[in-house]
Amino acid sequence: MSQIIGKSAAVCLISLTSLLALGACSPKPAATNEVASTSSATQTATNAVETTAPAAPVAPAAPAATFPTAEDTAKLASLPAPYNQADLANGKRQFAVCKACHTLPSGGPNMVGPNLHKVVGRHSGSIPSFAYSDGLKSAGFSWDYAKLDAYLTNPKAVIADSRMAYAGMPVANNRRDVIAYLKIESEK
Fold first, then answer.
1. Which CATH architecture has domain 70-186?
2. pLDDT in the model for residue 57
3. Distance from C-alpha of 147 to C-alpha of 73, rounded to nearest angstrom
4. Which residue from 4, 139, 153, 177 could staple onto 124, CB 3.0 to 4.6 Å apart?
């Protein structure tokens, strides 16, 4: 029996060796030809790209608008003190809180609060399309700089039944800056 196993092992070994030898001498497998074919296609595509006309140069993006503009700065200088010393960029940042309830552009809609376009100098409770509290409707004053400053400091201290759900802006420079921002932006 050991002779049979020995002969079988020898036949298997010879067969395996023959297969390996044939594999080493045979032509390259088809997969390699496909890779060569793909390389050829890639080279053709590369050549096509090289012969294509160059793309038109891309125009540089328009520079971002600077704020405040020179015109804003000139208008700021004409405001009464201390508003003529305001930081309009800070006023714009402070107004971001107000935007939750108010709009500023001319013709902007009323929201929870009225549109604030040209609020400086406007009579209290005067936008017909907005439902003001009775206190604001009957207040009888104009929103001058001092009144806006007092109202932004503590709305309920100026108009007890004010619906404005804002505790107030305690920092004087922030109030100065946002009031100047409201005035300058309302001129646009």
1. Orthogonal Bundle (1.10)
2. 60
3. 24
4. 139
Instruction: Note the helical H segments in the chain.
Output: 2-25, 30-51, 70-77, 88-98, 134-137, 145-153, 155-158, 172-186
Which residue is associated with the tokens 């496909």? 34
- Dihedral over Cα of 10, 11, 14, 19: its sign: negative
Q: Which amino acid is at 121?
A: G
Contacts of 130 (CB under 8 A, 6+ apart): 110, 113, 114, 115
How is the chain split into domains, by residue range? 2-46, 70-186
> 142 pairs with which residues across the strands?
123
pLDDT in tens, 29-59: 444 444 444 444 444 444 444 445 555 566 5
